[in-house]
Specification:
Helix content is 42%, strand content 16%. It is of the alpha/beta class and 328 residues long.
């Protein structure tokens, strides 16, 4: 049998990490992705590292009710790509993706599908599946997205210890195919000088003219901020308990403000008027994608994915405070 390698791509990890590299926050709506060339570049890199042809790239993502959207359908139609979908829970979190990756890793290792597995993920929940695949004689290489400093972004220490090797995705794979979304902002209206009044017309008073002038709250582009470097350490985004004595210090106000500002900037620069109205109308609830980005970015900033309930309340409260400040 001819030797092969195979790729297992956690799209949630790949796109959130790519968004962090490009925009400073993991909000996926803040980026535009050229999927075909990015996937082709991942396949080419895997072949170069292993010296083996890629049998197949497995693409794992979430979809509403497990039904692919148009973009996911196009990804699934690409050569050598197998689309594997989980679903979204009622809280907007992805369900079943980690389980599908883990089951496929073990099943494909037992059936001798390939000799080298490339795992594009950093999730701690995949550690045991990696070890079971290795027990079947398969090499597992973790292929991590580089942060702005070129270091692996968000790879669990347990997964790192279990893997045979850690590599980073070629920076050009991300930088050439992931772009920051910049939605044109409305331009403030400019008052037009009134024409000379015709004979017999009523001339408005100064008070009437003042009432008609545009206010200072007209929409304007949000300021562009520098991308935030993200620490290398992370664990899984899942909820796990452990001795409180080992918890790191809680984030300070400056860290929370920086995360909130980055997420708001990305949202305001990429969202259309309908999305912005929906955000305001749903207040005080925060849309799942924005809430996930806030929690993930703050977890990256403090080096722990075990944020306390108090920290989560502070983070969400500060989001609305900062959003109001920037909207004035």
């Amino acid at each position: 049998m001819r030797s092969n390698c195979a790729l297992y791509v956690d799209a949630g990890y790949l796109l959130a990490a790519a968004a962090t590299r490009v925009t400073g926050t993991s909000l996926r709506n803040g980026i535009h992705v050229e999927f075909r060339p990015m996937i082709e570049a991942l396949i080419e890199q895997a072949q170069q590292i292993s010296g083996l042809p890629v049998l197949r790239l497995h693409w794992y993502d979430s979809a509403k009710n497990g039904v692919p959207d148009k973009q996911q359908e196009r990804i699934g139609e690409l050569p050598r790509v197998k689309l594997r979908l989980g679903r979204f829970g009622v809280d907007g979190q992805q369900k079943g993706v980690d389980l599908r990756i883990g089951l496929d890793l073990v099943a494909h290792a037992r059936s001798g599908t390939a000799d080298v597995f490339f795992l594009v993920s950093g999730d701690d929940d995949l550690t045991e599946a990696v070890e079971e695949a290795q027990a079947q004689g398969v090499q597992v290489v973790v292929l991590a997205v580089p942060n702005p400093d070129g270091k692996p972004h968000a790879v669990s220490r347990h997964l790192l210890r279990a893997a045979d090797e850690l590599r980073t995705v070629c920076p050009s794979t991300i930088d050439d195919n992931v772009m920051k979304v910049e939605t044109p902002q409305p331009v403030p209206s400019v008052p037009v000088a009134p024409a000379s009044p015709k004979a017999g017309s009523i001339v408005p008073s100064p008070g009437d003219l003042a009432a008609r002038r545009p206010t200072a709250t007209s929409a304007r582009p949000a300021p562009v901020r520098e991308s935030q470097s993200v620490p290398v350490y992370s664990s899984s985004t899942g909820s796990r308990s452990f001795d409180v004595a080992f918890l790191p210090d809680e984030p300070d106000d400056e860290q929370i403000d920086q995360v909130v500002a980055n997420v708001i900037d990305s949202f305001r620069n990429s969202a259309d008027a309908e999305a912005k109205n929906a955000l305001s109308d749903g207040r005080p609830s925060i849309p799942p994608d924005i809430d996930k980005a806030l929690l993930l970015d703050l977890s990256d900033a403090v080096g722990s994915y075990e944020l306390s309930d108090l920290v989560r309340v502070r983070l969400r409260s500060r989001f609305w405070q900062k959003y109001d400040e920037l909207s004035k």
